[in-house]
Amino acid sequence: MRVAVAGLGLIGGSVALALAEAGHDVIGHDPDPATREAAAAHVAVAADPAALLDSEVAVVAAPVKRLASVAAETFPPDRYRGLVTDTASVKAAAARAFAGHARFVGGHPMAGKETAGFASAEPGLFRGRVWVLCLERGVRPAGRGGTDVGDWATLARLWTSIGARVVPATATDHDRAAARISHVEHLVAAALVRVADDPLSRALAAGSFRDGTRVAASPTALVAGMVAGNGPEVRSALVDLGMELDRARWATEVREERPEAIAEWFDGARELRASWPPEPGAVERTALERESLLALGAAGGWVEAVEDEVALCRRPRVQSTS
After folding, report:
1. More confident residue, 308 or 183
2. Residue 315 to residue 318: CA distance in whole angstroms
3. Distance between CA 198 and CA 208 in Å, rounded?
4. What long-range pairs does 191-200 form, CB within 8 A, spacing at least 24?
5. In the prediction, which pLDDT does 79 show?
6. Residue 322: per-residue pLDDT
7. Beta strands in the chain (DSSP E)
8. What is the DSSP pairing of strand 130-134 with strand 165-169?
9. DSSP conformational letter for 280
10. Which SS3 state, helix, strand or coil, does residue 274 take?
């Protein structure tokens, strides 16, 4: 399959490397000449983005704020007839940017690093990692229906071929979940760094500080784009986080009359954390039908491979209560 990759930073570069390694015909472009030069040693790179139009699938690995311009200028809907997908972390914003494209399927690989650029790209970045593929029920602009399941399946085959686990979800459901397991974590990491902004604290900091603040080293533009594109869901998650922190503060204040309060609060979280990641159940076969796939994703399941009319998938194993 001939695949165009627009944007050759960490994610786009890793996509290009992984697809080329899997035997696909890859053509890439990046607006930065130095990035193009670095990537050209590994995959075919075009100086003119018009070369990307000669492809069956276009993968747009650009920041949320640039999606609309890429949609209009690099892959204009009146000239590009291929299947278009993206890698942005906010799916409702991506859907708006590509509303004019009849064959757009939003995507988001749940993989990354705190470092950016093609120098950090690697072909194995997505192996064993979740790749969300949006499957919409609603009516799109110009009277078009929801996501074409055939197009969705084409991309599911592509991403599972490089080792990813594909999770079906609507853009709305993705954005709510992403705010709670990624976007807010970046803000919390930054807040923890700010709380420990004194010489002694930084001298004492060790593993828990390192792990809890790792993503505070992420590029500022990346985090700002997440928050700007997913503001309502980020604010909702922050409200819920604030309520949990209030419970923790309350538990520390009532230690004299209920010394077990903080232990109870923490133990509930400890049990939830111990159950993640979920243990996979047995392989099952699911029809390539919209509602069946969305039910799979809502249950925390994922697709591991796509055959003719069937997805090979797994769901989290139900924990025994006996």
Report:
1. 183
2. 9
3. 17
4. 192/216
5. 95
6. 43
7. 2-6, 25-29, 44-45, 57-60, 83-86, 104-105, 107-109, 130-134, 165-169, 284-287, 302-306, 310-314
8. parallel
9. B
10. helix
In angstroms, the CA 165 to CA 297 distance is: 11
Contact 233, 176 (CB under 8 A): yes
For residue 112, count other CB atoms closer than 10 A to its CB: 19
What is the DSSP secondary structure assignment for residue 216, as one 8-state letter?
G
Helix or strand holding residue 248 (H, E): helix 231-253
Do residues 152 and 105 touch, judged by C-beta distance below 8 A?
yes
Q: Give the dihedral of Cα atoms 108, 110, 111, 117; nearest 10 deg.
A: 30
Q: Which residue has the tokens 């278009």?
A: 84
CA pair distance 44, 260, nearest whole angstrom: 62
- Parallel, antiparallel, or unpaired: how do β-strands 83-86 and 57-60 relate? parallel
| Alpha carbons 7 and 90: distance in angstroms, whole number | 17
Q: How many residues does the chain have?
A: 322
Q: What percent of the chain has pLDDT over 70?
A: 96
**Domains of the chain with bracketed CATH:** 2-169 (3.40.50.720), 175-274 (1.10.3660.10)
pLDDT digits 0-9 by tens, 147-175: 999 999 999 999 999 999 999 999 999 99
Within a 13 Å sphere around the CA of 180, how many CA atoms are in the beta-carbon half? 11
Q: Distance (Å, rounded) from C-alpha 42 to C-alpha 217?
A: 27
CB atoms within 10 A of CB 263: 13
